[in-house]
Amino acid sequence: MRDGVRCETEKRGHSSSRGRSPLEIIVDASEGFIPLWDKGTTLRWKFRNSSLQFFENPEAAKGEIEVLLGEAILAWGDAAPVKFAKREDAWDFEIVVKQGDNCNVSGCVLASAFFPDAGRHVLSIYPKMFTQSREEQVETLVHEIGHVFGLRHFFAQISETEWPSQIFGKHQKFSIMNYGSDSRLTAADRQDLKRLYDLAWAGQLKAINGTPIRFMRPFHASGVSAQAVMVGELQPVGRLLTRPEA
C-alpha cells in the first residue's frame, strides 16, 4: 500500500468508532474475541455481473480481475488458511467493481474486504485501483486478502485504539498490512499467519493476551446470516482495464 492510499476495511489512523484498523501479527479483536476461519474452510465467491457492465468488455475485465485475485492469493503461499472457489450459487462473497472512486483529503480507496464471520460479504474494487501498476494492483489485493484471513493494520494498536486488536508474535513494521514504503509482503507475514492458524487449529492457542479465539464458518457452510464487518479500502492508481467514457 503506497502513501496516499486509504483502507476502508479499516479506516486509516482514526480512533473513532468508524476508524477500524494487526501483524507480527495483529489480529482483529473488535468484537471481544478473535475471529479465525475454521480448519478446512473454502470461501465461495462470484462476480456481481451488474457491476461490470460499465467496462467495454465485461468478460475481459472479469478475466483480468480473476488473474489479479489468483496472484494475490498465491502470494500468501501455504500460509493461506482458507481455499477459494468460484461458485455462482451458495456464495460467501461477491466481487463488486464500483462505478466511482472514494477519495478524500487522506487519499483514495483502492479496494475493501471483510473479516472472518458467517455473513455474506463484498470484496469491492474501485476504478482508481486500475490506474496503478500491476504490482500495486496485486499488492492491494494481497493486503485485502490479509483482512479476509483476520489480519488488521500494522498500526491498529497505535492509532485505532477504539477497536481492540491483539498482537501475536513480534511487532514488525515491514508488513503487507502497513502503508507506504513499509508495505510489503514478507516471509514473517507468511510465517506468523501460518503459525497462528496451526497453533489455533491444534488447540494449542485458545486466546491471545486473554482474548479468546473463535472459529468462524462461512455463510454457505453455516447458513447463518451475520452482519458483515467491512475492512480496509485501499486507494487505487492506474487504469489497466478500459472503461467507456460517460
From TrEMBL:
Report if keyword Cell division is assigned.
no
**InterPro entries for the chain:** MetalloPept_cat_dom_sf, Pept_M10_metallopeptidase, Peptidase_Metallo
Could you name the Gene Ontology cellular component terms for this entry? extracellular matrix
Keywords in UniProt for this one? Hydrolase, Metal-binding, Protease, Zinc
The protein depicted here goes by the name Matrix metalloproteinase-11
Q: Which CDD domains match?
A: ZnMc_MMP_like
List each copy of the Peptidase metallopeptidase domain by range: 33-199
* Biological process (GO), any one: proteolysis
Q: What is the protein's species of origin?
A: Rhodoplanes roseus
> Which GO molecular function annotations are given, in alphabetical order?
metalloendopeptidase activity; zinc ion binding
